[in-house]
TrEMBL record:
Cellular component, GO, one term: membrane
Keywords of the record: Hydrolase, Signal
Organism: Candidatus Marinarcus aquaticus
Entry keyword Glycoprotein: no
Protein name as catalogued: AB hydrolase-1 domain-containing protein
Residue span, AB hydrolase-1 domain: 43-270
């Protein structure tokens, strides 16, 4: 009877939460770690984002999964119940930190789940280490070019304060303007204890957020070779949903799902859906992407003087003039002219065989294949993210004789060469 009681107590200890305080070597700090379940089971590692809530974000998920999985979660160094100091809290260093804990507690391949900054850290981890079985990225923050990301944040903040379109457009353009007159590369400052103290006041959140946006992810998603689920809240005001489209475009074995009526934290906004989706993901072998099927086929389409129109399907010749908030999604376009309009193109194919013009317009292109013999641009704001570009000649020709034209690229490729920068095309020149 005594022997049976001892065995039962040992089994019970596996499913109860175990709290550990571990001094790890990457930051040389004491870290709060919590485990659930039987270490003999498949393992899941949860990585939280910015904020002192830390690992508490995952408590309900851990309780729901502890019977079937071994759960490892922690407060990242600099957050929650872990030590806080003037350290370089970068995605790369956090990846080394997670690898140390995984070797200590798990010692076998595991499922990796990250939210917000934690998703960006998880993506970095997957590019550095080969010991994960699957990856789940939830509303990953900071993946786009830092100018594109700061434009999004500024726009969201401005729209909360005003409905004046002029002010919104002005604030949206601030990051590009600042980039032309200030050295916005803060990477050197992050490396030094003194500069972190002076510029960031030794604040872990500020250091971690800055190190995140300074990290170049342009060659990371393409090299992820594990089953990857990408989840995004449709109403996310912190991390733009276009980042999810880009990740899905670039990660080979990936699946994307958006969550209606959810913001930046679907774990809380849609807890039952999140848990069900996670459980299904953990059992899934490999995601395969479906080839597009175009139900609507039009030889020619003219959109003029319209607002809020969404176009899909295959369109031979498309002209958009004097229109706002035009969205092209899941489409195949063969000829395109945009004039005095704002257009958003997502998850599409642009096979532009003839003369293409973007004049006095705002054009955002996301997760799209682009084949072109050259696009003529004039006085336009152009933002590409996750665009795979092929051209035998040049990509853009600036028609202006007065000023240079800026084009912003995030995680793009041009004839297989990486593009993750703000490019300035001088007046009358090509790029």
């Amino acid at each position: 009877m005594q022997r049976v009681l001892i065995i039962l107590l040992c089994c019970y200890s596996f499913v109860c939460a175990q709290v550990h305080y571990i001094k790890e070597p990457t930051f040389n700090q004491v870290t709060f770690v919590k485990t659930y379940g039987n270490p003999e089971n498949e393992a899941i590692v949860f990585v939280h984002g910015l904020g002192d809530e830390g690992a508490q974000l995952w408590e309900e998920s851990a309780l729901a999964l502890e019977d079937d999985y071994f759960i490892l979660m922690f407060d990242l160094p600099g957050f929650g119940r872990s030590d806080k100091a003037n350290k370089l809290y970068s995605p790369k260093n956090y990846a080394y930190f997670i690898n140390y804990l995984a070797q200590h507690f798990i010692q076998k391949p595991f499922h990796l789940v990250g939210h917000s900054m934690g998703a960006a850290i998880s993506l970095k981890y997957a590019s550095m280490f080969a010991d994960i079985k699957s990856l789940m990225l939830i509303d990953a923050a900071g993946i786009l070019n830092k100018i594109a990301y700061s434009q999004f944040i500024l726009k969201e903040k401005t729209e909360k304060m005003t409905e004046n379109e002029g002010i919104i457009d002005f604030v949206k353009g601030l990051p590009k303007a600042l980039n032309s007159i200030l050295p916005l590369d803060l990477s050197p400052a992050l490396q030094n204890n003194t500069s972190r103290k002076l510029l960031f006041r030794s604040n872990p959140s500020t250091i971690a957020a800055t190190a995140l946006v300074e990290t170049d992810y342009s060659n990371v998603p393409q090299n992820i070779d594990v089953n990857t689920l990408i989840m995004w809240g449709e109403k996310d005001k912190v991390a733009p949903i276009r980042t999810g489209y880009v990740l899905h475009k670039l990660i080979p074995h990936s699946k994307f799902m958006s969550v209606q009526n959810a913001g930046h934290v679907p774990i809380k906004d849609a807890p039952q859906l999140f848990l069900k989706t996670l459980q299904e993901h953990l059992l899934h072998d490999a995601y395969t992407k479906q080839l597009p099927v175009y139900d609507v086929i039009e030889k020619e389409r003219v959109v003029e003087g319209e607002n809020g129109v969404t176009l899909t399907g295959r369109i031979g010749h498309l002209v958009i003039k004097n229109s706002t908030n035009i969205r092209i999604q899941d489409a195949k376009i063969e000829d395109l002219i945009i004039e005095n309009s704002s257009v958003d193109i997502v998850n599409s194919q642009l096979l532009l065989k003839n003369k293409t013009e973007i004049l006095n317009s705002t054009l955002t292109v996301t997760a799209t294949d682009l084949e072109t013999t050259g696009i003529e641009i004039l006085n336009s704001n152009i933002d590409f993210a996750g665009v795979i570009i092929t051209t035998p000649t040049y990509l853009f020709q600036n028609l202006s004789t007065q000023k240079a034209q800026n084009v912003l690229f995030s995680l793009c490729t041009l004839n297989e060469n990486t593009l993750h920068e703000l490019v300035s095309i001088n007046k009358g020149e090509t790029f």
